[in-house]
């Protein structure tokens, strides 16, 4: 009897010990990250096991995104300077490179099974100017079954980025983006999408006496807002997560009406599949919650639509918690303003609902289209 006891006790202990992923979900983490890039623009990044270690006690679940493009070193343009970030060249040096997605899938599969549930790999490195890309996406899903949770970050308009894509920027009017998002919708998947709401510097030009002839006394409107919203409306089967509080960035700042535009969109049933991420906090929070009025308007929107906002770090290629935590802390005044219950919904619960549904839908699609590639 005594001999048998130890293995039975050990088995019981194992049976009742929560898996590490489940334990993470229970209490001891700060957030789930809807917007995390494991690689940089050269496909470099930390080992995924280092990411897992960083996540312990801080992050329950995370999106695992590469980047949609890599940056070429073209010595004819940049000589011996090898750019590693998209701002560091004026060449059309960004190109869609499937290695980004292959590495994401490879790293996910290198994880021990128990850790995989904490990661949600997203695919992004397909050419938005190519209607064939819809077929390539299906191949990548079949090549790596049971890997992908969804898609992202997909860049449409992005300052200093989209115009540097080899062959020119993606078009908001091209049938190719519709072909791609038709397939994503067929899979019932989510997509993290980046589309600046405006061309950079428009608002600043308004106060530039030398630029008076541009607007001629008229107020500018966000240049891409309507076109992108028309695109969103065409794809109601895709759970769209519009990044950076609806398309803000370094030179693309919110108009005074930005919060009203957001309210109009979130209140419109035609956009009930659209969600907003609070990511790139270090860059955009200084324009979103910089005044008591902005802070209140942001908090009021979250109070009105508590299931439509998600937190994301937008950190890239790092496993350094001291760095990654700063994206979360950039929103500290907002977390304080909305209180712990709403913070939990934005920072944790909404992620679980959307990412779990997308993951499940993709497994269902795979089962119905289980062609083995050999
Ligand atoms: Zn982005």
Describe this entry's structure for a reader.
By secondary structure, this protein is of the alpha/beta class. The chain has a single domain, classed as TIM Barrel. Helices cover 46% and strands 13% of the residues. It has 17 helices and 12 strands. The chain has helices at 2-16, 20-26, 48-55, 75-78, 99-110, 113-116, 133-143, 175-186, 202-206, 212-215, 225-233, 243-247, 258-267, 281-288, 292-304, 321-329, 332-368; strands at residues 31-33, 36-37, 59-65, 69-71, 94-96, 119-123, 150-155, 190-194, 239-242, 274-278, 309-311, 315-316. It has an 8-stranded parallel sheet. Strands 2-12 form a two-stranded parallel ribbon. α7 packs parallel to α8. The N and C termini lie far apart (52 Å). The model is unreliable at 1-26 (pLDDT under 50). The structure holds zinc ion. Residues 153, 194, 243-244 line the site of zinc ion.
Share in β-strands: 5-15%
Number of E strands? 12
- Assign the CATH topology: TIM Barrel
Can you tell me the overall shape? globular
Helix content: 40-55%
Order of helices and strands: HHEEHEEHEHHEHEHEHHHEHHEHHEEHH
The CATH superfamily is identified as: Metal-dependent hydrolases
> How many individual helices?
17
Low-confidence stretches: 1-26
Secondary-structure topology with pairs:
Elements: H1 2-16, H2 20-26, E1 31-33, E2 36-37, H3 48-55, E3 59-65, E4 69-71, H4 75-78, E5 94-96, H5 99-110, H6 113-116, E6 119-123, H7 133-143, E7 150-155, H8 175-186, E8 190-194, H9 202-206, H10 212-215, H11 225-233, E9 239-242, H12 243-247, H13 258-267, E10 274-278, H14 281-288, H15 292-304, E11 309-311, E12 315-316, H16 321-329, H17 332-368
Parallel strand pairs: 1-3, 2-12, 3-6, 6-7, 7-8, 8-9, 9-10, 10-11
Antiparallel strand pairs: 4-5
Helix pairs in contact: 7-8, 15-17
The structure holds zinc ion.
């Amino acid at each position: 009897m005594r001999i048998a006891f130890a293995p039975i006790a050990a088995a019981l202990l194992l049976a009742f010990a929560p898996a590490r992923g489940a334990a993470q979900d229970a209490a001891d983490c700060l957030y789930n990250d809807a917007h995390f890039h494991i690689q940089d623009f050269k496909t470099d990044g930390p080992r995924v096991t280092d990411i897992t270690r960083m996540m312990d006690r801080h992050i329950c679940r995370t999106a695992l995104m590469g980047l949609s493009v890599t940056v070429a070193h073209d010595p004819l343009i940049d000589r011996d300077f090898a750019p590693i970030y998209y701002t560091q060249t004026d060449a059309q040096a960004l190109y869609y490179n499937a290695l980004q997605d292959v590495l994401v899938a490879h790293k996910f599969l290198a994880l021990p099974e128990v850790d995989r549930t904490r990661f949600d790999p997203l695919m992004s490195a397909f050419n938005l100017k190519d209607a064939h890309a819809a077929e390539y996406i299906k191949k990548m899903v079949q090549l790596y079954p049971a890997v992908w949770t969804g898609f992202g970050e997909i860049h449409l308009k992005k300052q200093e980025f989209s115009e540097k894509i080899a062959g020119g920027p993606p078009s908001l009017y091209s049938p190719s983006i519709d072909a791609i998002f038709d397939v994503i919708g067929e899979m019932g998947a989510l997509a993290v999408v980046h589309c600046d709401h405006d061309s950079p510097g428009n608002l600043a030009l308004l106060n530039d006496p030398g630029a008076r002839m541009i607007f001629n006394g008229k107020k500018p409107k966000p240049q891409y807002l309507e076109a992108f919203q028309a695109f969103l409306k065409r794809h109601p089967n895709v759970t769209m997560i519009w990044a950076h509080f609806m398309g803000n960035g370094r030179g693309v700042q919110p108009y005074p009406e930005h919060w009203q535009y957001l309210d109009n969109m979130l209140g419109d049933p035609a956009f009930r599949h659209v969600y907003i991420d609070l990511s790139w906090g270090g860059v955009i929070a200084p324009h979103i919650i910089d005044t008591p009025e902005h802070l209140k308007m942001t908090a009021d929107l979250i109070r009105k639509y508590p299931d439509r906002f998600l937190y994301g770090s937008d950190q890239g290629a790092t496993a350094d918690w001291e760095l990654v935590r700063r994206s979360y802390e950039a929103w500290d005044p907002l977390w304080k303003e909305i209180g712990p219950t709403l913070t939990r919904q934005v920072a944790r619960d909404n992620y679980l609902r959307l990412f779990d549904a997308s993951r499940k839908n993709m497994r269902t699609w795979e089962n119905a289209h289980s062609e083995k590639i050999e």
